[in-house]
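Hello everyone,

My group is preparing for a crystallization screen and wants a predicted model to guide construct design. The compound we'll soak is flavin-adenine dinucleotide. Before spending weeks at the bench, it would help to have a computed complex in hand. I've included the protein sequence and the ligand's SMILES below. Output in structure-token form would be ideal because that's what our pipeline reads.
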Amino acid sequence: MNSLWENTVNLPMYEELNKNINVDVAIIGGGISGILTAYKLKKQGIKAVIFEKDRICQKTTAYTTGKITLAHSLIYEELISNFGTEKAREYAYLNKKAIEEYENIIKEENIECDFEKCNAYLYTKEDENKLIKEYNALLKCDIDCEYIEESSLPLKFKGAIKYKNQGKFNPFKFIKHILKDLTIYENTFIEEVKAKRKTLFTDSGYKIKANKIIFACSFPFLNVPGYYFLRMHQELSYFLILKNTKKLKDIYLNVDEKGYSFRGYDDILLFGGEKHRSGENKKGEKYQNLREEIKKLYPGFEEIGHYASEDCMTIDKVPYIGLFSKAFKDIYVITGFNKWGMTSSMVAANIISDMILKGFDYKDSIFSPERFDTKGIKKSIIKEGPYSIKGIGKEFLNIPDTTLQALPLGHGGIVEYKGEKVGVYKDEEGNCYIVPSKCPHLNCELSWNPDEKTWDCPCHGSRFDYMGNIIYSPSIYDLECIEKKVKKE
Ligand SMILES: Cc1cc2nc3c(=O)[nH]c(=O)nc-3n(C[C@H](O)[C@H](O)[C@H](O)COP(=O)(O)OP(=O)(O)OC[C@H]3O[C@@H](n4cnc5c(N)ncnc54)[C@H](O)[C@@H]3O)c2cc1C
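Reply:
Good plan to model first. Here are the tokens for the complex, ready for your pipeline.
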């Protein structure tokens, strides 16, 4: 379904590329990270061209909660432990600057995007110790915050941290303004990048020669070099759009397992959580769980919509912003926002434009993708490795979930069909949609998500609708429909 932001703002439409072109900077991906980077470069006299495979801002950016904050859940204690205090302070400083920059741009350009300053709260109903440790780390990072015992939410909690001077906005209203004068091609799918030749190829056969290339397409589809698939996965969250609750000025995030998030927009409440690694929702009932949870607070709530969306998660909780790989000096990457892409996109736009315009290398920055060689990536391989082969391993075991006949109406599952293992969705009328059971990205076994009626990859988070159409990368291919078996009357 459409997101809240899509329902409030129509973004302009752009033509698709229909010839070979040469550009100075090519940006792959028309989400907030690609758009902010193009905007920053344009302000400094560099023309960047955005290539978007569908419509701009219809993927993760459409479903953001629009919190502009450095309260990125529990992170600063871990950053200090993994990277040291100086680097953790760099993370905090650049994110704080990002919040201020949003405010400045909005003021200077008079952008009506419902921007409001507010406090951000992280709270726990379980273990207060983890919040107290985080609070101490925040003080070391010069973050303006307070430890508190109550907030305006009618919730019982054990402890909370209040982060001052944070913000929220309508991201589509903001984006609509900064899009002006950018060059964008929509429905232009970059199928291949020849990094050495700095050439991009679209699926319609057109060629783009660029001096610089920026991957801002969420999960990069180029596997080698870079190896981002070894150091990232994707995580899904579910949201309800609600009325008849309470107007909330501030923004809230529960740091316990379910990760409940509250964000008010006028008389609407976005309430979400129930996060899980993509491809790991066999049981389903995520929306139902959210409804039951919110009923405890606002029994008279009215649901006007719901949606799920995913984002790239890095092993050490820090995005990858900088050179795509040491092997190529003019190819850049922006990814791994860990569901904090509003401030992180601004940080990325600043870092990448400094690299392009001023020649800074940011090699020692906490955001540098080159930290691949350090402690973080060793952990990543240990943690992500088994996941990367998990789908493949299951394939070798070759155990289908069920049979075609036994699959209930309205359900999906892996079944054996004509001697092959396939993915099947059986609709309410009994028609079966049969697709391959493996992800075209790296051949991992797909998993059925009953809440979304999608095929999700547990390894790297590619997602497909039940007919096999790709919804989320890194796969660049659909699942080829093997057969639609229509129920005989
Ligand atoms: C439920 C949820 C809530 C969130 N809430 C917040 C929040 O409150 N605050 C916050 O800071 N962050 C939040 N985030 C995170 C934030 O929304 C994302 O990090 C951010 O929107 C990602 O932007 P992006 O530009 O990197 O990716 P996207 O918005 O996914 O854009 C990438 C674009 O690249 C295009 N693309 C992909 N492959 C190709 C190709 N081969 N050729 C051409 N185009 C291609 C896609 O079609 C897409 O449009 C949330 C995330 C989720 C999932």
